[in-house]
Request: fold
Amino acid sequence: MTEKKTYLESNIQQLLQAAITIANKPDAQLKERTYGLLQKELGKQISTRTFSRTILVFLCALLVLMSLWLFLKISNDLVQALNDISLIIMGGILLLNLAAIPIAGFILVKRRRHA
Amino acid sequence: MIYEDLDDLELAHRISIGDERALKSFYDTYADFLFGYIKHFLNDIPDAVVEDIWQETLISVIKGLSGFRGNSKLFTWMCGIAKHKAYDYCRLKKYSLNPQYQEYKNDLLNRMDTNLLPEDYVLPQAVRCRVIKTLGILRATYRAVLIQRYVDGLSVVEIAKSIGKSYKATESLLSRARLTFKSTFLKLSKEKRND
Reply:
């Protein structure tokens, strides 16, 4: 029993000493710099996550209402709709949002690959 | 609150909600081990590459902590991310990864408490990676006493003094730590033989 314990102790000592050496640790400066990077990254994560869901839902609802209204106006009288500056701005906003969908998708895929 | 005693899931949760002290505790516990793991895994690859992969891995870990579900130990999960980063990095920079990956001897596991292990049993890359991984997933108290005793070379009396326990209690803690180290090392070694 004592022999077994002695062997185990010596072997664990050998294994640990082979695996843990000063050369296998980052230097103090690098460690400090990296910790700063992690703090920054965590801060970024928190601020991204704290974007209010209520605002997000509100913005989506606004877009849906805008597109419905635009659709109704255009289907009633196309010529008049094309002369109405507020409707043109609204159409522009909707088009911008539509164009952002593939870009947002690309960014999401890229982020997931890096995570 | 003692952050060192938090379980992996709780620690991950606390960090992901922005708890700075949890981040510090996580960093103090795992950063060096992760660096050692990457260094052993990459073997002869320059230090600058190891440092890059280490930083990238830690940033990815922070990004992914809110999705950590505790299906594996936190350090095992981190090593998995590090391995992927290492493969990606080496593929991109055209480094040849592990040209002569040194596996461990088949009878290493049986010889742990029956023979004194010769150098060629202790030094292979796979063994060093596995030792680091084992330490990373041990309980903080076990890890601390094992390192104090076998790496820093402290006596049992000195360890007892540093952790505020009696000689007998410290000896018993060390004994449990050794047995847990052995069983975890064996378990990890049986699970996979490719890291």
